[in-house]
Amino acid sequence: MPSAAAPFPRYRAVADHALLVEFGETVDPAIYEMVWQLDATLAKHPIDGVAEVIPAYASLLIDFDPLVTDHRTVERVVGRLLTEAGGTPKAGTRHDVPVCYDDAFAPDLKAVAAASGLREEAVIAAHLAGTYRVVMYGFAPGYAYLAGVPAILQLPRKTTPSRNIPAGSVLIAGPQCLVTTITMPTGWWIIGRSPARILDAQAARPFLFEVGDTIRFTRIDRRSLDAAMAQT
Question: Where residue 194 falls among pLDDT bands split at 50, 70, 90?
Fold first, then answer.
């Protein structure tokens, strides 16, 4: 395998059953578009023995059966596919996700406003104005990482995490946003609550979003949130 100094794409063996294809080291739309391009190409031209393909911000993990194929074979086929026309990532579905920004559900809204130099209503307006893309799932079940947080709201993670953050909390950190699906600690900034059911473990398709989908947030009031939560 090439060394860490090799140009992109880089190929890294993962255990005896997977190959990691790296396209970069930053959160950059041009990079994750290349990830999605390869993902689409592999869907169109599957490799014998490959069981699963998992996209991330800057890489694609190709999991395979080591009794059927190996790292060198998968790398050789991927390299060939990357030089060909390949597939085009499918147009993602647009989802409108409601958010309530009331103080009871946005314990960090004041801190985000202070750090960004904005009033609280301007923070909310900036968050609502963003167009977000689902780039990957990770960390916890149903945690869809969304790229596209407006630059004015891109803050580093908090130095001290908060515990027992309820499902449905809307979080931001750096260029990323997500809506929690289970009660978990977090070091991200909590700016709202959504009734959207992103994870349904009993459904045939347990995740509401697909990688590549577009998300727009819409504002709701406390009454609307309570009514929506009562129906889930």
Answer: very high
